[in-house]
Amino acid sequence: MSNPVVVMTDSTADLSLELLKKYQIISIPLYVHFGEKYFKDGLEITTPELYARVEQEKVLPQTAAPSPGDFIDVFKPLIDQGKDIVYIGIGSTISATLQSARVAASEFPENRIYIVDSKNLSSGIALLVLKAKDLRDQGLSAPEIFDKINALVSKVRSQFAIQTLEYLYKGGRATGLQALMGSMLRIKPIIKVTDGKLGVYKKAFGKMSRALDIMLEDYVSLGDQVDLDYVMITHSLADKHAKHMIDYVNTHLKPKQLIESHAGCVISSHCGEGTIGILYIER
Predict the structure, then answer these.
(1) Whether 97 contacts 30, CB under 8 Å
(2) Model-wide pTM > 0.70
(3) Is the N or the C terminus of the chain less surrounded, counting Cβ atoms within 10 Å?
(4) For the chain, how big is the Rg over CA atoms in Å?
């Protein structure tokens, strides 16, 4: 008989506190800091508060991974209770978070903590977490969940349209942005996550709505290749555009669960206000 399984993620998965509670998922926060002031993402600072502080202080925040000690504090009581852990975290090429989790896991007996490198961010992680939650509810063991989720990592499709290039450019996170800076006023780049790296996938000229249409057309064109269990529309204070995308998806290729997710502080620190994306898994 296998041990009960706890599904864990981190705050960059951009799952709301309500969903985490509803689905019994544990999330460990990353940190956002302005100078010496550190805040736990989503717990001690919200996205609107983050942007207000940027406006006030005229400086972009930095972000930091949880320490191995932060992970140990969460892992230990669960392991002591006889539970196994499947942790699905932000891509190892994007953040040091996964490395902290691995260091922490090495302090515990083998085969108790299973760590999945999502090679993704934001709802690209959340899609895998929700799938893991379903497998947990079906009674699968931690190693079985680990194997099945690992097999899905390369099938996650994450793309975001960027309203303002300032955050991504200053953060140095996305390739191909250098050439765009000269004409940034007219171009809305669509950033895609591929194997843990962020790159410019397509460019929309003019209004933001054109970028939304490109992403929606790509989604609908896949038809029955899309795993319709979960589709996510994730954004950083882009409510009007989110409504348009939600209406379109519900009309053209409706999933079983369409989740509107709000980008937390760490993700918003790197992408900026108005960013919006559609994320899903291909079969």
Answers:
(1) yes
(2) yes
(3) N
(4) 18
Q: Taking the alpha carbons of 78, 80, 85, 89 in that order, is the dihedral positive or negative?
A: positive
Q: Pull the structure tokens for residue 200.
A: 């410019």
What digits encode the pLDDT tens for the residues 172-202? 655 556 555 545 567 888 999 999 998 888 9
239-274 pLDDT, tens digit each: 999 999 999 999 999 999 999 999 999 999 988 899
8 and 254 Cβ atoms separated by less than 8 Å: no
Whether the CA torsion 17, 135, 102, 77 is positive or negative: it is: positive
Beta strands in the chain (DSSP E): 5-10, 25-28, 31-34, 37-40, 62-64, 84-89, 113-117, 156-161, 174-175, 187-194, 197-205, 226-235, 257-262, 276-282
Q: pLDDT tens digits for 2-28?
A: 999 999 999 999 999 999 999 999 999
pLDDT at 184: 57
Helix, coil or strand: residue 45:
strand
Identify the residue with better confidence: 124 or 206. Answer: 124
pLDDT band at 166 (very low <50, low <70, confident <90, very high): confident
* Contact indicator for 276, 267 with CB cutoff of 8 Å: no
169 close to 156: Cβ distance less than 8 angstroms: no
H/E element, 148: helix 142-152
Per-residue tokens: 203? 């460019």
Distinct helix (H) and strand (E) counts, the chain: 10, 14
Beta carbons of 235 and 14 less than 8 angstroms apart: no
In the DSSP assignment, the letter for residue 41 is B
CA distance 201 to 176: 9
Query: Is residue 43 a contact partner of residue 29, using CB atoms and an 8 Å limit?
Result: yes
